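tool=predict chain=A
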Amino acid sequence: MTTPLTTAPTAKAVLPIGLLIAVLAMVAVLLLPLPADLPVAGHRMLAILAFAVVVWISEAVSYEASAIMITALMAFLIGTAPTLQDPSQLYGSSAAIGLALTGFSNSALALVAGALFIAAAMTHTGLDRRIALVTLTRVGTSTRRILIGAIAVTILLSLLVPSATARSACVVPIMMGVIAAFGVDKRSNIAAGLMIVVAQGTSIWNVGIQTAAAQNLLTVGFMDKMLGQRVAWLDWLIAGAPWAVIMSLVLLWLVLKLLPPETDSIPGGKEAVAQSLADIGPMTGPQKRLLAVSVLLLLAWSTEGKLHPFDTTTTTYAGLVILLLPRIGIMTWKDVQSRIPWGTVIVFGVGISLGSALLSTQAGQWLGSQVVAHTGLDQVGPLAVFAILAAFLILIHLGFASATALTSALLPILIAVLQTLPGEFSRLGMTMLLGFVVSYGFILPINAPQNMVCLGTETFNARQFAKVGLLVTLIGYLLMLVFAMTWWKWLGWM
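tool=predict ok
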């Protein structure tokens, strides 16, 4: 007689608590009395927004899964709601799903996809690594110069690699090689300072360059959709880059003060970088062609509306055509498809759809008017409006792990607030400036993907990161107020 084998009980899959709270938040909003000046569809969109915010803050499910959930909720809840034009008629599921997929026909989504292709081309050819190594060979062996080199690499790659996560993923291994070459402890101030500079420098230059981050392109998408105009690549650079330059120097100074390096100079560091550069060999044909295309794209982006009539999306796709051409190009679809984070494209498209639906159902306008009515924003000037809304974004960002999610959830509402406000000021400019603030992922490692990439090196802890990040946030915020009173006002963005 054989004794039956006993198997260990399998753990039951538990429904994430964040998802339950999100559903409860949505139901709670749906059960609230319908305001007289808010359409049913708008009421339901606010419920979906509540669901989205809780899911994104709690990270109960992946961003991609949440995007599909939001699409389904819009199809069912808006599909069964009366239309704004004729309350006796329902939207129907076909029109509702069309509304939920509006974002996928937006040029900003096409630009994000194109930007991800260029980032993939950089990693495919290894050009991003070569640019980083060449830059680092130009700096000395002192710890100060290595930190300056890290910032210089961040700036250069921000111009050429339109993905913050891709940039940090490229730079981090190189910097870890530098740390190893120095022979210093992984948990030393030198290593911690270097990685914090990479993470926070990336966020700083997300502000300075329009194509550096997905949230910027999402901001441009909302400008197009809600304001009927957008800020050109060069105009964004002229507005944001001076702030980013000053903040790069502030970051360098803070890291040197708060995490003083154990030694001022370490021999062998420059040689180690030069050796890494020698190991990857001479510049290849594909790298040369990609560099040429990247430089041409920079020229095209920076002269948009000045020397030619083509927008950033159009010129980016022209560049992609060259990169994908047989014999002339540098990659095939097969080479690139596995390197593209397709989930980002889905989240981005649904994010634009969410913002568009909030607008088309009048939920955004209603919420904007409520914010204005109950906060007294209509009683203060443009500078105070910017100061209050920017501080709000910085605080709320502490709960978000994704600047793209934060932009999707809040920027349409803030644009509606700006449209509701009286007085003469640039709504377009203010939207751009609030788009700058969305990149403030300085305080917690979880606030930006590049922070998490750097945290994974185990060179610093959350306390060290926050110690630097809190001061970067405070100084950066005050500097933005100074810029709002001077530079940005002179440029006509306030």
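The radius of gyration is 24 Å. Residues 19-100 form one domain.
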